[in-house]
Structure formats: structure tokens, C-alpha cells
TrEMBL record:
Protein name per the record: Ribose-5-phosphate isomerase A
Enzyme's top EC category: isomerase
EC numbers for this chain: 5.3.1.6
Residues at the active site: E105 (proton acceptor)
Species this protein is from: Bradyrhizobium sediminis
Keyword Isomerase set for record: yes
CDD domains attached to this UniProt entry: RPI_A
Subunit structure and binding partners: Homodimer.
Isomerase keyword on record: yes
Residues reported in the UniProt entry to bind substrate: T28, G29, S30, T31, D83, G84, A85, D86, K96, G97, G98, G99, K123
A molecular function (GO) term: ribose-5-phosphate isomerase activity
Keyword field: Isomerase
Length: 232
């Protein structure tokens, strides 16, 4: 079975958690895209839900699929967010942001009662860090922010190259929030929760891709079928 089919299997399993009347966070990325497609089919068949998209790309897709949308200004809490991840560890801590939507993804996940992360099983790792850690930065004072980030890495026993993400045009990639992204190639992150706290305290950091304690359930699809892991 190819990777795309595995991602669709994970999305279909997460859809089983959706109930009529729910307010949903709609994730961004290749696996979340399958979830929005499948959700659209259910909506067209009569399911009554409303969604908050985590990116402009997801908003456009949801509208095309006929999923009714709202905003976090109009609803107090979301029942459930379904999103993908670039890495998942056994504590269900995540690295996210490969698609550049980490800030909105984290805002939506934090406003939800539950977060289900869906992925193919290649995203499961013993320790986070093989996937470069995205950090969303305010462009002003970039060099100072990068120096502070290097200090946070050193304080937690991490080190690695920091690369400014480029768009297809060769210029700095710009997020939906108007920020830039630096990808930190750490290899193996020692003490991800502590590093998350240190990065959050840096003034020029808009957000980072460490999602600590947000996912309650992971749905992983592999050649042996679906595996569901609850946060311990």
C-alpha cells in the first residue's frame, strides 16, 4: 500500500471520532487534507459540523468540500482538532510545521478539548529531532533571535545548523501570519519540553514546532493496519 493510501486510512479512522454538532479544528498538510476530503463527503451526506481551518490552504479546501467554517472569535472552544505531524514520540509530543502553518495549528489545537494526530507510521520516532524543528520568527532582529535560539539549544544539550526556509521563488518563505521560518537541524532533541519553554520565552519567536502535551490520541497507519495510541 502506498503512503498516500496509508494517510487516507488514518484520516478515515479519525473521522470515526467525529459526532454530529461538533466544532472541529481542521489541520494542514497532506494527511489532514485527506481528513477534510472525507469530512466533506460526510457533510454532503447530512453531517452537521462546523470547522476552523489552520491555514489559508485548508480554508480554501474546506470551502470547496462544502464544510461550513467559523473562527475562534465566534466560538469559545472546539470539541476536536484533527491534524497531521512531522514526528510523533511515545509521549505524543510532536514536531509540526513542515508545511509552515505551525502558529495557527497550535492556536487551534490549544483551543480544543481534544487533538487527534493522524499520520503514516514513518512519523513515529523514539526521540524527536530527526525532522528539522521549524521555528517561526518575526523578521525584525533575526540575527539576535537566532543567537538566542542557539543559547536555548546549548542550554538543553542540543546543537545543529539553523537554515532560513526559502520559498519556491528563492526568497524567504512567508507564513500566513507574515513571519519567516528557521529550520533547526538538531538530529536528536534532548528534553523537548524544556526546550519548548526556552524557545517560547525568546521575544522574536512567534511560535515553534514543538507541540508538547496537546495531542491526546495518535492514529498511525502502516502496512500492518491501523495503530491507535493514547497519551499516557
Amino acid at each position: 500500500m502506498n503512503m498516500d493510501a496509508l494517510k487516507r486510512q488514518a484520516a478515515a479512522r479519525a473521522l470515526e471520532e467525529v459526532r454530529d454538532g461538533m466544532k472541529l479544528g481542521l489541520g494542514t498538510g497532506s494527511t489532514a487534507k485527506h481528513f477534510v476530503d472525507l469530512l466533506g463527503e460526510k457533510v454532503r451526506a447530512g453531517l452537521n459540523v462546523v470547522g476552523v481551518p489552520t491555514s489559508e490552504a485548508t480554508r480554501i479546501q474546506a470551502e470547496q468540500c462544502g464544510v461550513p467554517l467559523t473562527t475562534l472569535d465566534e466560538v469559545d472552544r472546539l470539541d476536536l482538532t484533527v491534524d497531521g505531524a512531522d514526528e510523533i514520540d511515545p509521549a505524543l509530543n510532536l514536531i509540526k510545521g513542515g508545511g509552515g502553518a505551525l502558529l495557527r495549528e497550535k492556536i487551534v489545537a490549544a483551543a480544543s478539548d481534544r487533538m487527534i494526530v493522524i499520520a503514516d507510521d514513518s512519523k513515529w520516532v523514539d526521540v524527536l529531532g530527526r525532522f528539522p524543528l521549524p521555528v517561526e520568527l518575526v523578521p525584525f532582529g533575526l540575527a539576535a533571535t537566532r543567537r538566542a535560539m542557539a543559547g536555548a539549544f546549548a542550554e538543553t544539550g542540543n546543537s545543529g545548523q539553523m537554515v532560513l526556509r526559502k520559498g519556491k521563488d528563492g526568497h524567504a518563505f512567508v507564513t500566513d501570519g507574515g513571519h519567516w521560518i528557521v529550520d533547526a537541524q538538531l538530529g536528536r532533541i534532548s528534553d523537548a519540553p524544556r526546550l519548548a519553554g526556552l524557545l517560547t520565552s525568546i521575544p522574536g519567536v512567534a511560535e515553534h514546532g514543538l507541540f508538547i502535551g496537546l495531542a491526546s490520541l495518535a492514529v498511525l497507519a502502516g502496512s500492518q493496519g491501523i495503530r491507535v495510541i493514547e497519551r499516557r
